[in-house]
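Key idea: predict the complex, not the pieces.
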Amino acid sequence: MSRIVVPSSRFRPGPVLLWTAVALVGAVGWGVLALSRGERVSAVWLLMAALGSYFIAYRFYARFIARRVLKTDDRRATPAERLEDGVDYQPTDRRILLGHHFAAIAGAGPLVGPVLAAQMGYLPGTIWIVAGVVFAGAVQDMVVLFLSLRRDGKSLGQLARDEIGKVGGAAALLAVFAIMIILLAVLALVVVNALAHSPWGTFSVVMTIPIALLMGCYLRFLRPGRVLEASVLGVVLLVLAIAGGGWVEHSALAAAFTWSPTTLVLGLAGYGFVASVLPVWALLAPRDYLSTFMKIGTIALLAVGVLVVSPVLQSGAVTKFASSGTGPVFSGTLFPFLFITIACGALSGFHALVSSGTTPKLIQKESQVRLIGYGAMLMESFVAVMALIAACALDPGLYYAMNAPAGLLGSTAGSAARAVTDLGFTITPGQLDAAAQAVGEHSLVARTGGAPTLAVGMSEILSGLFGSESAKAFWYHFAIMFEALFILTTVDAGTRVGRFMLQDMLGNVWKPIGRVTWKPGIWLTSALVVAAWGYFLYAGATDPLGGINQLFPLFGIANQLLAVVALAVTTTVLVKSGRLRWAWVTGIPLAWTIAVTFTAGLEKVFSANPQIGFFAQRARYAAAIDSGRVLPPAKNAADMHAVVTNSTVDGVLVSVFLLLVAVVVVNAAVVCVRAVRRRPTLPSSEAPYVESLISVGGPR
Amino acid sequence: MRVVRRYLRELTGDAEFARHCARIRANHPDRPLPTRRAYELERLRRREERPLDRCC
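Result:
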C-alpha cells in the first residue's frame, strides 16, 4: 500500500507568533475581568478582551465560514461585475465599501442598548456583546450578504419568499414593516428624552436643519457633487451650533428652546413628515453626509479617549439586578432580558435588511463578504463596547439617578437622591446638581433613554483626553448632537423606507397608491407611517410608568425577531443547498435567538408579574380603576387609563410580532425537513455561474 | 492626509463623476462626456427612488 504524501502547508513562525500573541492579549483581558471581584477594574482589560476576541474570530472563524461553509469563489463574477450599470451595480473598492456598509449599519442602537444594560454590571453585557457578535451577529450579516450576493442583491423579504415560500415571505414582509415602526418610535423617544427641557441641546439639534438645508443648496445649485467641501462647511457650522447652544442657554432665547416632551413629539413627527416628502437633496442627503462624518470622527475620538484615559469601571461586574430582575432601568432577569436590551452591537436583525440591499450590488469579489459583512459588524460591536465602558465608568449613584423612571425618582435632586439610596446606591442632592451644572443642564434626574448617560460618560472621557474640565458641557452636548443626528437621519430614511413598503403593499389593492411619483399617494403613505410611529412616540413620551422601560423591550424583541427571520432564511438555504453538516453555523444562533425572543416575548405577554407582563399590568391598573384607586406613579385617573391603553397595545403588538415570526420559522422548518428527506422544495434562486474577468489586488 | 482625503472623496461619492467619465472614455470613446452639473443632478434624482439604507 502506497502512502500519498500530502505536502503540509509551509510552517511560518511569524503569523503563528502573532496570532498566539493576539490570543494571549484577549485571554489576559478575559482573565482579569473574570477574576476581579469587588475591586475597581480598568476599562483597558475590557478593551483587550474584546479586541483580542474580534481579531481571533475574524482570522479563524470568519475565514472558516467563508471557505468551508459558504465556499466563496473569486472566479465567479459578482452581480456588481455581471450587471454593472454604473448606478445600482458597480464593483467598489472593498475599503470604501466597508466604510459605506459600516455607516449604514451603525447608528444609535449600539450606543443606547449597552447603556441600559449597564444596570446588570459590565460583565454580562461584555460577554454578550463579544460572544453575540462573534457567533451570531457578524455571522448573520456575512451569510445574508453572501446569499443576497449570489442572488443579484435581492432583499431579505424576496429571499424569504423565493427560498421558503409565499406565506413565510408575506409574514416576513409584514413583520419587517411593524418592526420598523417600533424602531423609529423608540429612536425618536431617545431624542425626546435627551432634549426635553434642555435649551442648549434643542438649539444645537434644531440648527442642524438650516445647516443641512444650506449644504443641500450648495450641492444642488452652487457646486453640485462637491460633497467634501459641503461637509467641511457643515461640520464647522455644526461645531459652532454646539458652542452657540451654550450662549443660548444663558440668553433670553433660552425660553424659546425649552420644550416639553409633548412639544418635541409634535416637532419630531412634523419634521419626520416634511423631511420624508421633501426631495432627497434638501435634507436627507446632506444630513446623511454630516452624520457619516460625525459618526466616524466621534467613534475614532472615543476609541482614543478610552485607550488614553482608561477609565475605571465603577459599576460592579454583576449587580444584584441581574438575578432579582427588579432593576429600575428595565424589568426582568438577565435571561432573556439582557439579550434583547443589547441588540445592536451583538446581533441586530435590521442589518439583514442592509446586507441584502445596496451592499451586495457593490461587492467586487465573493471572498470580500468576510471583510464587509463580518468585519463591519465587529466594528459596530466595538462601538457597543465603548458605550458600555462609558456607562459603567459613571458613578452608579448618578447612573441610577439618570436612568430610573421619573415616577420612581420624583422631579427634584432631593427626591432622586432618596430614591437612589432606596435602590442601595448613594448620591447626594448636591452631587446631582453639580453633575448637571458641569454639563450645562438644569437637571439630570430621570434623563432616561441612554443618550444623556452616554453623553455624560463621553464628556468625562473626552474632557479627560484633552485635559480640560471646563469643556465638559461642550462635549456633553457634542455627544447629544452626535446621537440626535444619527437618529434624525434614521427617522427620515426609515419613514421613506416604510412609505415604499406601504406603497408596495397598498399598491396591490389600489394601483395609484403604488406609483412612486404620484404626490398625493406619497403624502398619504408618509402621513400614515409618521402617524404610526408618532402614536408610539407620543404614548412613550407621556407614559406615566416611563416610556423607555416600557418600549425598549418591544424594540429589542422586534429587532431580534427580525434576526430570527434572517437566520431562519439562511439556515434554510444552507440545508437546501446540501450543506446540512454546516447548518449549525446559522442554526445555533437561530436556536439561541428563538429561545431568547420567544421567552422574552411570552413573558411580556403572559407573565403574572405586572412589572413584566403587559396584560398583568393592564389587569392591575384596570382593577384599580374599577375600585376608584390611583396607583403610583400614576397621578390621576387619566394616567391610569393611559397605562391600561398602553399596556394593551404593547401586549397585542408583541403577540402579533411573535405570531408573524412563528409563521416564518415553522414554514422554514417544513422546508428544511422536506429538503433533508429529499422531497421537492422551491428551486434555489441562485444566479448561474459566470466567470469573473476582473482581478483585485491586495489581501481580501 | 492625502490618503484620508481620497478615502473620504470615495466614501461620499465625490469621486463618482470622475469614475463615470473614465468609464465612458473606456467603453464609448465616441460619446460626449456629461457636464458635472448634469451628472450630479441626475444622481440626486436617482437617489429619490432608492431610499437610504440606514439602520438603528
